[in-house]
Amino acid sequence: MVVAAAVAGCSLDAAGLSTGADASVTDVATHREASVPHDASGNPDAAGADVRVLHPDDASPHDTGAHDRVAVPDAPPVACSVPPGPCVAALPAGWQLVTFASSQMQACPSPLTPLDVVSDPVAGAGACGCECDVTTPPVCNEGSLARTVSADGSCNQSGVVLSVDGAGCSPWAAGSSGLYAYGKASPLPATNGACTASATMNTGDVTTTPARVCTVPTNCEEQTCEGGAAAGFSVCIEQAGAQTSCPAGWGSPVVVGTSIDLSCSACSCDVNTLSTCTAASLAIFGDGACGTLLATVAVDGTCVADPAAGQTPVAFKYGATLNQVCATAGAKTATVALVSPETLCCKP
């Protein structure tokens, strides 16, 4: 029988056949319906109908015989088309569903939105430093220069104290007698310098753990909540701020941020103490205008013979070379904070 053969060939039972006056056939390739004429008895063969259906694989026409409709299964649901349901409804209030990977090498599947984050910032020893800015260089020619003298090489007697005030010509100590055979003095220290200190920050010496958060759109929440995270990701909930605990059943808190904020404690500086004055010398003159040079002696803390011994000095000039060193001090303590912190709690 023609109808029976058609049913067997299409794997349809008799209940799947239509007996209406004008049955329709589905074009599988295009999902369009083509009208099939029937004769008065309801038999399409009797009307000479040529029923043709496009095959879904190669779109070539195939003769189906005389039957009414080819069944087409429903298309699978589009990804992330499940509306929010009981899993989403049970999420803790104030928390947002996300997925989380402890690596930025993992890609968020579309249509989830990626956000790169960091956690566990640790400042190394070089994260903070101190910079010295010398505002006033120290000088080597201001202060009181005390000399010791002697007739021999011991320089064990107190001599004059000269008031040094710059590199110019200065009067010798009043009431002093002629120069001794030997004399000694130590260089004046560097003085009257000033500096400002400022903390320096080196974020390159702060280590962090990179990670990636995927924001879940509303139409993906139910599937994700039920365990639909991509490979390498965990299903998590997220809340703004650094929380100390997670809702029951959501593991331990992981605090992440979009970047780090490094701050350093204040520091101080000193441009006088470690600066030195070397190659100091004392030029001794026999007149008040420093025009008649009697002798020039080294000022280095050693007892030396005075080439102008017995002569009466009237004025002097003192000079030395500054070796400037600006030293910094302070704890240089680093404090690292996460920018825009968020707390993640993930299913174990």
Task: Describe the fold and architecture.
The chain is mainly β and 348 residues long. It folds into three domains: 2-63, no CATH class; 86-125 and 203-263 and 337-346, no CATH class; 133-196 and 270-328, no CATH class. The protein contains three helices and 24 strands. The chain has helices at residues 2-10, 86-89, 221-225; strands at 24-27, 32-35, 52-54, 61-63, 96-101, 113-123, 128-136, 142-150, 157-165, 170-171, 182-184, 194-201, 206-215, 234-240, 254-257, 259-264, 268-270, 276-285, 293-298, 304-305, 315-323, 327-329, 334-339, 342-346. A hairpin with a 7-residue loop joins β18 (276-285) and β19 (293-298).
Task: Offer a concise description of the structure.
This protein has three domains: 2-63, no CATH class; 86-125 and 203-263 and 337-346, no CATH class; 133-196 and 270-328, no CATH class. It contains three helices and 24 strands.
